[in-house]
Amino acid sequence: MTPQYTSSYGGDNPYRSSASSSSHHASSLGGHRDEMQELHAAPSGYISQSPFLPTLPSAPESLAGGHYMPSFESRDSLYKSASFDDERDSLYSRRDSDAWGLYDAQHEGARTSLALARERYISRKQAALAANDGVYDVTPPKPSRFTLKQKKWMVGVGSVVTAIVCAIVIFFATRNNTNATIVDPPSSSTSGTSKGGKPTAGAVASDPHDPSKFTKDPRLHRSMYGLCYTPFNAQYPGCGATQSNVTEDIQIMSQLTTRLRLYGADCDTSQLVLEAIKQTQVDMQVFLAVWVDDNAATFQRQVDEIVVALKKYGSDHVAGVTVGNEFLLNGGSVTTLLSHIQTVNTTVNALGLGKYIPIGTADAGSMVTLQLASGADYVMANVHPWFGGLPVDQAAGWVYEYTNTNAPSTALTAPNKPTLYVAEAGWPTGANETRLETYQAATAGVAELNTFLASFVCQSNANVTQSNLQPSFIFEAFDEPWKDALYGGVEAHWGLFDANKKLKDGIIIPDCASP
């Protein structure tokens, strides 16, 4: 997928969606590496005291001396980094100084073929520069075949021809659709993908004239409090998301949950989702979102998108508006974020929608503070046991204990009593490289995701019903292949469904009632 934003790091920031976020909208150019925290010993039996079933360590050698859980009280790496910059460079590598995989992990000090190839390339480049006395070719250019007047004439003719071709393309592309960029009509096609220009993945058997009539998948159960979701091809400025594709997504996800969490408003995301709910007539509430970075134009553009969507569709299916995702984790200031939250609150709730729309924010659990919570109607904490290097059979208990006894719990002491959500909880099923499918005692896989779902989903629902604690959003609905090129590792592989909207082989959805 195409990148989303240009950041101060000098590269493009796409929306991301995974853990610290494995958010949909990009949290940082480092993926989840900023969330890797130092492990501290906790009292033995700590997890067994939680409302989740007691578990046994699946990797005892990594847990010597008692149960281990990330404290998130420091930003120290799990690796013994010499500096913060070294930590950022390490990512999932076993060597802090080997972020590019230049050393052979099996033979200490040995260089990999990648490293040797890179060195050969540099040597050839240096030799070429030496032979040419520099990087520039100073050979006098050959005389042009055309005079300056002829060149100007050709440029003018080319511009006219280009304009005519564009006009013809636009005419035929829009003559049968008065609003093709936002809402296209339900299509009779049931195959193909958005990248191929076809409307859907053909994952749902549906009445082409009435999207509310679709075949339910018996493997799916509406057992999840909420799901994290970003439409395919909704990365600004590419914006290739289509209504029919989003409508198909809503048909699928409505069989799993009644709540969705979005990450941004670009590419008409808010309108596409609300229109899909309207077309399918499903029971669904949505937390719309405003992506926040250090660009004021980005913020205003998305606020404007939210306003347009609310004016058009109203607030019946809107549960709230989340301002920012891991803005603080990426170096933003609390003061700036609180100002944005207040701006959105004033703007949205001045629309006269007939009800108050809660305005909140989402960030890594370690970034939640009393100051932040005091300025928001709700706080969403991204909490991922994978990045603590925990064995999966301890993951559910850790999410509960960490959220209720560490930084996120400070939100519950704020005088305005904001709601505290677990914004992202999940487990990856793979990685872009086999060596990255394990991290400390954590192993990616379908079996491991099943373990997490079985131990977390229904017990989490019970906690909400019985104690109003930790309503949680599962991260995430679909795999996001665009993250492989940008982040690598497990970032693209958190979906219950693959990128073609097929339930991953072997996935078992828990069967219990969601709150």
From TrEMBL:
One of its GO terms (molecular function) is glucan endo-1,3-beta-D-glucosidase activity. One of its GO terms (biological process) is cell wall organization. InterPro entries: Beta-glucan_modifiers (IPR050732), GH (IPR017853), Glyco_hydro_17 (IPR000490). It comes from the Eukaryota. It is found in: Cell membrane; Secreted, Cell wall. Keywords: Carbohydrate metabolism, Cell membrane, Cell wall, Cell wall biogenesis/degradation, Glycoprotein, Hydrolase, Membrane, Polysaccharide degradation, Secreted, Signal. It is a single-pass type II membrane protein. It is an enzyme of class 3 (hydrolase). Belongs to the glycosyl hydrolase 17 family. Glucanases play a role in cell expansion during growth, in cell-cell fusion during mating, and in spore release during sporulation. This enzyme may be involved in beta-glucan degradation. Active on laminarin and lichenan. This is glucan endo-1,3-beta-D-glucosidase. It comes from Pseudozyma antarctica (Yeast).
